[in-house]
Amino acid sequence: MARPAIVLIGFMGAGKTTGARMFASALGTRVVDSDKRIEKRLGCSIAEYFAREGEAAFRRVEEEVAGTLLERADGGVIALGGGTVGSERVRRALERHTVVLLQVSRATAWKRAKRSDRPLARDRRAFDRLFAERETLYESVADVLLPEVDRQKLKPAVPVIARA
Ligand code: S3P
To answer: Where is this gene product found (predicted)?
Structure first.
């Protein structure tokens, strides 16, 4: 039987890509980033595709690519795009994996995400609304919650096991 993967989820700017690389290197295993897979499939950037085809079309591709990736995964570390858990197929596929939620404050998420070319990080209000909408969704699928480290206060992150 295929082994579970460690799957990093969380909002834009939570640090999923970086975190996934760190987990993978510590465990000596491979890492897959679902957004990169999607861009490979699309042959263009997510931002370009969003602008040309719209969000609904993007979500269909995202569900297909991430769903297949999670259904076939045998070990390893996977970073998912922030909106991927909105899909029921993806949530079903996540059930056999170990899902780690990288928590991030709204302020940090905005500061990081606005620097990049993310189509859903252009308008602060819409970004904040999305953040609030997604919070419980992320928590509902997570096995482990990893709080954001406050570097200023040097407060260590304490992982919380949400589902034994
Ligand atoms: C999105 C997050 C992005 C990317 C797309 C949509 C979202 O990935 O998939 O722009 O809906 O939250 P990151 O979470 O890696 O930024």
So the answer is: Cytoplasm
